[in-house]
């Protein structure tokens, strides 16, 4: 017998503003039950400084349904089954599976013989040749889940540290924190290995050289734009629409969100003021230690934080989780109309990961933030908080009571799809598939459960270039184009097949090309329909 459907939205507000609800269920963001108790927090309430703990906080076991049948979905937009854990796009490495003693990631890569290799292309050397807690050495593979104790300490966690701080953290990290331009005034030199390529395949070499030339030209345009005394925001938006180079994205995002002033002389003072303000907010929020926090909000945050990006090492470190807890709690108490809503934790991850990348030369998803200077990690946390606030300011009606923003967007999406793909719309209706049963999560999660973090970051480049309303308005057209992309397959399926397919879409292999095609199709729809608002039934 199928389990009853669960509510897709939880809005947790400070108890002084509303009467606490009796039951708290999962929403469309979660892949595990709320009934589980959160792991014991190592957050220090006496100070908002990060914990010295470098080991990843154990993640609760994901709960899988005994009956994954989609027929348990209700035919009303007010109810939706919590997604299957498979709704997370698989990473390039094998996703860890739950073991009886909790989550423990073990690095298993081919053994490197040279212990002196500290090049920037191999930053995780310390993961090699280190025994696990049971004394077993690493074996060849990607990642496995070891049956270790949930709270390992000491030498058994040495493999979770980066071999050399100097090989992973930029030497000018603290300067970049004070002045983002420090990180882009010296463009990286381009490596040219053309001789070998020409010898092997001259035609391929020419193509690679052309692509490299285009990328270099775009990067120089970005550098010229960002280096001006007063950045031309229109020019930056035009450049950013087609994607932002990785090393320039942190500063570009902050400018596009309006967090960083366009005028260069004002930036250092503004950053110092906003970071000090956030520090004060944290100190006030946790001034009375645990007894002073809103227990209902804090309880849900403690449950959700370990679930954030399961299997990604960055989000398993205690220092990262403490940052995330503070960001979410401070935002919740500053926005009592919505409070903390399950899933906002995922919206922090692109910001934190992008801003972290400004200070290191290794993969952010593998990096242990506790290795950073305290001032740098505090800056990343504060910048992530303010940029999250800017984003949510434009879509806050998605998270207030009854979520009118999401309901309006889903109605408009259904009406738009009926016009651009009538056969698909008719088939969904004939199978009794309501858009709210799958599109709710697309709107609530900004498609973050359907595509990878890297795809999300690339998509957000365009969203931020589109303007402040893109996360609600332009996202509607992206979701419509996303659905129509699967039209031919969906029209061959029945109700159960449609729901199961849409909950686990085959986007695992998507790269920038697929995302850019989707964005281009959405741009066409936006151009045609944006000025025809009267054609939509729902507003």
Automatic annotation (TrEMBL):
It holds the Pfam family RabGAP-TBC. Residues 41-56, 115-124 have a biased composition (Low complexity). Residues 66-102 have a biased composition (Polar residues). InterPro entries: Rab-GAP-TBC_dom, Rab-GAP_TBC_sf. Residues 23-36, 125-141 have a biased composition (Acidic residues). Residues 1-155, 184-209 are annotated as: Disordered. Gene3D superfamilies: putative rabgap domain of human tbc1 domain family member 14 like domains, Ypt/Rab-GAP domain of gyp1p, domain 1, Ypt/Rab-GAP domain of gyp1p, domain 3. One of its GO terms (cellular component) is Golgi apparatus. Residues 243-467 form the Rab-GAP TBC domain. It comes from the Eukaryota. GO terms for molecular function: GTPase activator activity. Residues 193-209 have a biased composition (Basic and acidic residues). PANTHER family: LD44506P (PTHR22957:SF26), TBC1 DOMAIN FAMILY MEMBER GTPASE-ACTIVATING PROTEIN (PTHR22957). This is Rab-GTPase-TBC domain-containing protein. It comes from Lentinula guzmanii.
């Amino acid at each position: 017998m199928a389990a009853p459907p669960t509510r897709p939205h939880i809005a947790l507000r400070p108890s002084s503003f509303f009467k606490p609800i009796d039951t708290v269920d999962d929403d469309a963001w979660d892949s595990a039950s709320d009934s589980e108790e959160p792991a014991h927090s190592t957050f220090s309430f006496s100070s908002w400084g990060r914990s010295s703990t470098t080991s990843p906080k154990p993640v609760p076991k994901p709960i899988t349904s005994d009956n994954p049948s989609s027929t348990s979905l209700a035919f009303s937009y007010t109810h939706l089954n919590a997604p299957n854990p498979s709704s997370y796009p698989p990473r390039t490495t094998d996703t860890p599976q739950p073991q009886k003693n909790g989550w423990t990631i073990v690095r298993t890569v081919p053994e490197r013989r040279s212990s002196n290799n500290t090049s920037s292309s191999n930053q995780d050397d310390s993961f090699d040749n280190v025994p696990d807690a049971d004394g077993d050495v690493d074996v060849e593979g990607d990642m496995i889940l070891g049956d270790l104790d949930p709270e390992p300490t000491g030498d058994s966690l040495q493999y979770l540290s980066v071999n050399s701080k100097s090989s992973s953290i930029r030497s000018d990290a603290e300067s970049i924190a004070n002045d983002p331009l420090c990180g882009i005034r010296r463009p990286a030199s381009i490596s040219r290995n053309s001789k070998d390529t020409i010898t092997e395949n001259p035609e391929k070499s020419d193509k690679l050289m052309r692509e490299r030339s285009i990328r270099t030209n775009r990067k120089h345009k970005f550098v010229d734009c960002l280096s001006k005394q007063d950045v031309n925001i229109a020019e930056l938006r035009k450049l950013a629409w087609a994607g932002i180079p990785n090393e320039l994205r942190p500063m570009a995002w902050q400018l596009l969100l309006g967090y960083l002033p366009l005028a260069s002389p004002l930036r250092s003072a503004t950053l110092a003021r906003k970071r000090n303000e956030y520090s004060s907010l944290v100190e006030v929020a946790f001034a009375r230690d645990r007894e002073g926090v809103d227990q209902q909000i804090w309880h849900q945050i403690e449950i959700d934080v370990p679930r954030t990006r399961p299997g990604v090492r960055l989000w398993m470190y205690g220092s990262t989780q403490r940052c995330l807890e503070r960001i979410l709690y401070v935002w919740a108490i500053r926005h009592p109309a919505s409070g903390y809503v399950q899933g906002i934790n995922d919206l922090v991850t692109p910001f934190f990961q992008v801003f972290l990348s400004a200070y290191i030369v290794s993969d952010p998803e593998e990096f242990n933030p506790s290795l950073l200077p305290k001032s740098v990690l505090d800056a990343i946390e504060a910048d992530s908080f303010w940029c999250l606030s800017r984003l949510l300011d434009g879509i806050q009606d998605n998270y207030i009571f009854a979520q009118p923003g999401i309901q309006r967007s889903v109605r408009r999406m259904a009406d738009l799809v009926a016009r651009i793909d009538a056969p698909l719309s008719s088939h969904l209706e004939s199978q009794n598939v309501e858009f709210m049963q799958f599109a709710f999560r697309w709107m609530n999660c900004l498609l973050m459960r359907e595509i990878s973090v890297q795809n999300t970051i690339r998509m957000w480049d365009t969203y931020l270039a589109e303007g402040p309303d893109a996360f609600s308005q332009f996202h509607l057209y992206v979701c419509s184009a996303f659905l129509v992309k699967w039209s031919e397959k969906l029209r061959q399926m029945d109700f159960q097949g449609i729901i199961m397919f849409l909950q686990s879409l085959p986007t695992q292999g998507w790269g920038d090309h697929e995302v850019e095609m989707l964005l281009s199709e959405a741009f066409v729809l936006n151009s045609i329909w944006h000025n025809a608002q009267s054609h939509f039934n729902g507003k």
